[in-house]
Design brief:
Elements: E1 3-8, H1 12-23, E2 28-34, H2 37-46, E3 51-55, H3 63-73, E4 78-83, H4 88-96, E5 101-104, H5 109-120, H6 128-141, H7 144-147, H8 151-161, H9 166-173, H10 177-191, H11 196-204, H12 208-211
Helix pairs in contact: 4-6, 8-11, 9-10
């Protein structure tokens, strides 16, 4: 019996390659190919999908936001996230949104097929041991605390990393400059940093693009 799969990637060549690879297996059928949130949600609302293979980075959102939606709306569907770089941030966020695996895009085609079969059978590759090691590394870098910040604080940090002033940041996030200053002051204390430069350096080493839209 064929297992129905969905492939979501915003690059045509990647979508076509993934679809071709998976369809080579007699027990796998790609029933849908999508490019982002809207068409994925629309397709899954009318088509049964057992496993969704989703790119972490998409033009209109992130694979994490799609995985979060699937966890809420289609909990029987398993998710494999694809990324060009498997970071500790992505591993932790992937687990939090219910994904079963994070696979590097450079993986061989036979590894991809093997992993999607295993995930379809119920195996979760994001083990507690793996996640514990990721948390330890993130904590040692001072990043774990930053990941617990709310979406607005993360956006402010990202803009600090881009060198923007409090006034410019306030205009971007629709807050007053004083409110931005208050938030920055609080984050300095929470993150154990002395100044904005240190915050900017922290942001530079943080995989913000992968996790800032995880809800």
């Amino acid at each position: 019996m064929e297992v129905p799969y969905l492939v979501c990637d915003d690059h045509a060549m990647v979508r076509e390659a993934l679809t071709w690879i998976l369809n080579q297996s007699e027990d796998i059928e790609v029933v849908g190919v999508t490019t982002g949130c809207d068409d994925t949600f629309e397709l899954m609302s009318r088509t049964d999908v057992d496993v969704a293979v989703v790119d972490v980075r998409l033009v209109d959102a992130t694979g994490l936001s799609i995985a979060s939606w699937i966890q809420r709306e289609k909990p029987n569907c398993k998710v494999i996230l694809l990324t060009a770089h498997v970071s500790d941030e992505v591993l932790l966020e992937a687990s939090q949104v219910g994904a079963s695996d994070v696979l590097n895009k450079s993986a061989a085609s036979n590894e991809l097929i093997s992993r999607v079969r295993d995930v379809a059978s119920g195996i979760n590759f994001l083990t507690e041991s793996m996640l514990g090691d990721a948390r330890d590394r993130l904590n040692s870098r001072g990043v774990l605390q930053m990941m617990s910040l709310d979406a607005t604080d993360k956006q402010i940090l990202s803009l600090i990393g881009n060198g923007m002033t409090d006034k410019q940041i306030g205009e971007s996030v629709y807050l007053s400059a004083q409110t931005v200053r208050n938030r920055v002051s609080r984050m300095l204390t929470e993150l154990g940093k002395d100044n904005r430069t240190q915050l900017a350096l922290l942001v530079a080493g943080f995989d913000t693009a992968a996790v800032q839209d995880s809800v």
